[in-house]
Design brief:
Pfam families: PorP_SprF. It comes from Filimonas lacunae. With about 325 residues, the chain is mainly beta. The chain has a single domain, classed as Beta Barrel (Porin). The strands form three sheets. A 14-stranded antiparallel barrel has the order 1-2-3-4-5-8-9-12-13-14-15-16-17-18. A two-stranded antiparallel ribbon has the order 6-7. The protein has a two-stranded antiparallel sheet with strand order 10-11. A hairpin with a 2-residue loop joins strand 13 and strand 14. The N and C termini lie far apart (about 45 Å).
């Protein structure tokens, strides 16, 4: 029976495009959830307050949704005052991840602090460093599993003992992550690059006492470049990579921001991204001066699409609150691609 349960756990925990390893939420719109991308991004491009919600759903044909992930975050910028462009960024984040209709549930509660130091008097060159502490809670509901020993003439009988009890149905742990980035912001172009380390504490996980393991550290790298095109348009190129336990995910894409010039709507953003070896997905967004709403739909190209009709879509909403900063240069949108 251990092999049966192992296969089920793999189905719960490992699906290309949504997991690097067990319990690793991943967003197509990673730029709309900056602290899951790099803790150093907490407070970046925030005037006063910024809140964000990301919702990702992935399902197979007409079956139950195998994955449903929601994250909500709130960030605060604390300026140094005067003419000093350096500032602090504080953030709080909650991530809820459910697999196979709730068989596996993961909840993460994180607090982040980042310092953004200006390398020049105008803040065009910035260097940021951040650290994030996370409390994680995992629940594996063994009552929702179906085993071969429970199959009878009347179908699956949940009341029949499975004879393969999971010894670790719940697990709680603390973890720590950290990141760095550098950015240059000019009047007509700019770029940034950074890296982060997640699971520095290598917390212990597993379903059985005799088969626990230490979660391998995850490393991420990101880079972006933007430039103006015409009067109100902008081109943004973005790349993001994650590495963990011998596995890797590479994402590369671009966004074209079409300026609208309306008092309410700032731009219509359209783009396309490729998650190599897994899927490509279009990106459509409406962006105002203080909010942004985005949509993506994954067109899966990996081998899993040969066996099941895998579909994924993601919604995001980000909004700024509090006082505004009208002195920032071009490309100072709601999020940093």
């Amino acid at each position: 029976m251990n092999r049966t349960l192992y296969a089920l756990l793999c189905a719960c925990l490992l699906v290309p495009g949504t997991r690097i390893l067990a319990q690793e939420p991943h967003f197509s719109q990673y730029f709309s959830s900056p602290m899951t991308m790099n803790p150093a991004f907490a407070g970046r491009m925030v005037d006063d307050w910024r809140g964000s919600i990301n919702m990702r759903s992935q399902w197979w044909g007409q079956a139950i949704k195998p994955y449903y992930t929601v994250t909500a975050s709130l960030e605060k910028k604390i300026a140094k005052g005067g003419d000093n462009p350096s500032y602090w960024g504080l953030g709080g984040m909650v991530v809820s991840d459910q697999s196979n209709g709730g068989i596996l549930k993961n909840n993460y509660f994180s607090l982040t602090a980042a310092y953004h130091i200006a390398l020049d008097g105008k803040g065009k060159h910035m260097l940021g460093a951040g650290i994030m502490g996370t409390y994680a809670n995992r629940v594996l509901d063994a009552n929702k599993f179906l085993f071969q020993s429970q199959l009878g003439s009347m179908g699956f009988q949940r009341s029949t003992p499975a004879n393969d009890g999971i010894t670790i149905q719940k697990n709680n742990y603390f973890d720590i992550s950290a990141g760095l980035y550098y950015s240059y912001t000019g009047e007509k172009s700019g770029f940034s690059a950074g890296g982060a380390l997640f699971h520095a504490a290598k917390p212990k996980e597993g379903a059985y006492e005799n088969t626990t393991y230490n979660m391998p550290r995850k490393y991420s790298a990101n880079a972006s470049y933007w430039f103006t095109s015409g009067v109100d348009n902008e081109v943004h190129l973005s790349g993001f990579a994650e590495f963990q336990g011998g596995n890797s995910i590479y994402t590369l894409g671009g966004v074209y921001k079409i300026g609208v010039g309306d008092e309410l709507l700032r731009s219509v953003n359209v783009g396309v991204f490729n998650r190599f070896g897994d899927a490509w997905y279009p990106y459509v967004t409406l962006e105002a001066k203080s909010w942004l709403g985005g949509f993506t739909y994954d067109f899966v190209r990996s081998d899993v699409s040969k066996y099941a009709s895998v579909q994924s879509m993601e919604l995001s909403f980000v909004w700024k609150m509090g006082r505004k900063n009208n002195s920032r240069p071009s490309a100072a949108g709601v999020v940093a691609y």
